[in-house]
Known about the structure:
Mean pLDDT: 76
Radius of gyration: 25 Å
Largest sheet: 22 strands, antiparallel, barrel
Number of helices: 2
Order of helices and strands: HEEEEEEEEEEEEEHEEEEEEEEE
Structural class: mainly beta
Helix content: under 10%
Strand content: over 45%
Distance between the termini: 41 Å
Low-confidence stretches: 1-93, 95-101
Amino acid sequence: MKRRAILFLCAVVIASLSIGAQALAQAGDTGKKDEAKPGGNPGDPKNPAPKETPKEAPKTDPKAPPKDVKPAPKPEEKAAPKETAKPAEEKKAEPAAEGEEGVFSPKLTGSLSLKYKIKYAEYTDDTGDKAEETDQDLQMLLNLSMKNLYKNQIHFHMMGGYNIDTWGRQDSKHRAEVFEFADVYDTYNHKAHGKLYYSYLETDDFLLEGLDMKFGRVGIEKGESIHIDGLAVSYEPEKALVVTAFAGLPVYFWKHHMVDNFTAGFYIEFLPFHLVEDVPGDTTKLTLEYIYVSEDQNDAGIEDNFFSVVLDQKLFHRTVDLQARASVLNGEFRDFKIRGTLRDPENDIRLRLMFFTLPVKLEEELSIDMSPFMDVMGRYNPYNEFKLDIFKGFVDGKFGIELGYHGRMLKKERYEGKFNHDFDRLYATGSAYDFLESHLDISVTVEYVQSMTPDDEDKILTMGFDLGYKFSDEVKFGIGMHYHRWEMAYLSTQDTVEELENVRLFSLFIDVKPVQGLKIGLNYSFETVGGDLKREYDRFMLSATYSF
């Protein structure tokens, strides 16, 4: 009955919004064409609060929790920036006019996001009986930037979130070993929990031209994504050289903050062609990164030294972008990654490739974790990974075809197991944008997955699709269906994780912008799980984001 009630509620609300969407669409044709289009969706700088995020099939990367799927953007479009990654970038205001220096004239911008989630699961428990679980959460996220506190040289940025378990439970009502909707918030003792992702003062050219400083809770996003309570300083004596250094207490969003720990590091970015006339300065960039972390766990000190070098290179009049990155951890080679993109705008062609190798085991006791789930998942075993895709557009970008391959090869067959699979995936996607000038976007994907399991080999041919319809600039609707070979279940009450197999996801959404700066969204998804763990999930989310 609960599930039916949720489905009935979704149907009523979606039907109501659809009717209102048509009215807004008619009104939108005659007015409100110049309203701002706030972009972006709330996200997470370093997985501080596990949430549903877009998925790729097959699901092999345990670092990305699932999310409701929306129609993919056009291949040449960049994904909307996450609100949680860093403060919204703005052009620097013009210097204060002569005679106005020292005037306190702050400008406040930011956003407030609210999400109410209802989740329902139906499964067979350990005794063979049918069981169900329900969970409800309210999530809030506040993002603020106050520019120009002093002569356009001092600014303030902060972002904080709050999660409330409105259902009032953090464990299974059937006292089962696994609570279907557990997440890292359920590892705390309270139903409500807040997090401060960053809060810092920023100075631009305040004490010295080319010198920028950040003091407080700061996110370091240049290489390895880390957060500290401390100081970060960046100095650019000339365009060819940028030096960034930081030091402070490391911030752990998924476990208790330990004041005995310490981290420090630096980044050196060198652009040699800024020193050469008649050559684009950003053609080549070399970045050196070093991070030191010390931890005092159970009175046993742990120290890690991490070093990486990155080469960014643009070739053939910027039609080719290459990046190569190698890293060393505690004196041993950790991983190597190379990726490249070729763009031919004249013929509407794009080619991308990526190769990654992890030649060594990474154990869970490292202080520089690859993901917040490493404590419960254990080690990463050696593997090679390769991706290749090519896109070709037709009819002035109204149609497109993409062909791709994604494969992971384990170094040894005995490494095959949970979260560590050997697989090959081939796929073809056909897309149509503004199909027949109907404001309808269509995307259909056919994929073939060949994978190894500890017991057998699977060969699966499947299909998925995305449909998106734009009633007006203020109202958009989408529906989709996708297949995922593997998917990670969230943390359980026993601090373990499950791997779901053969997951089929059906999702729909509607976004409405009733007034400038306000976006209201309604999302619903239905998920079925095969394999040994048979599950059915219903997820409903009502969200509202106001940007100012």
